[in-house]
Amino acid sequence: MLKITNLTATVDDGAKIILNGLSLTVPKGEVHAIMGPNGAGKSTLSYVLTGRDGYDVTDGTVTLNGEDLLEMEPEERAAKGLFLSFQYPLEIPGVPTLTFLRTAMNAQLKARGEGPISAPDFMKKARAIGKQLKMTPEMLRRPLNVGFSGGEKKRMEIFQMMMLEPSFLVMDETDSGLDVDALRIVADGVNALRSPDRGMLIITHYQRLLDYIVPDAVHVLSGGQIKASGGADLAKTLEKEGYDAYV
Question: Which residue ranges does the record assign to the ABC transporter domain (predicted)?
């Protein structure tokens, strides 16, 4: 599904290499986790995958379902089913949450050659998913993320993810700043989207999220490269021993 081969990426007009020959494959239907120390390149990987400005790919390839992801604009990548859950979700004053999300859904549907979702169908789906994530109607009526706590912002990211139903999810430290109750709610939403046709890449510092979202594979990212890979138990080893062996 997602195949990364020898990916090298720089910032500051090539002055600093962040990803240095990274290779990784996430098959369809699997959940993979990436762990690593600060500055390893974890967030940079998510930005490169989704096409954020300021990151230059100097070598390597990235394909999603066999298509060249690096040749696409960010909106094209989204229309192909790529979704990024931000570590620090943005607030957009004056833009109602549901208006924003319905506009995004219809833009993606149009890019795929499909018709728009009707207002009644959209609201029915939004209410059902909001109830599942324990989101009040008042939360959904607010401008996007405005006045939300850190946990509410992360829950809103999962809400958007469940509404859009992307084919590949990239979660950049979604567990950051969550208490135990919020972590469980977020994890339940992510687990509800696990399917044989969907892949996920979870970027995290801590093993605790992986107690709730058990990955098929765990990879250690350090110095811009995958240094080790293993099963879910690797995360527990990293939690106990740290990253010294890979730095």
Answer: 2-247
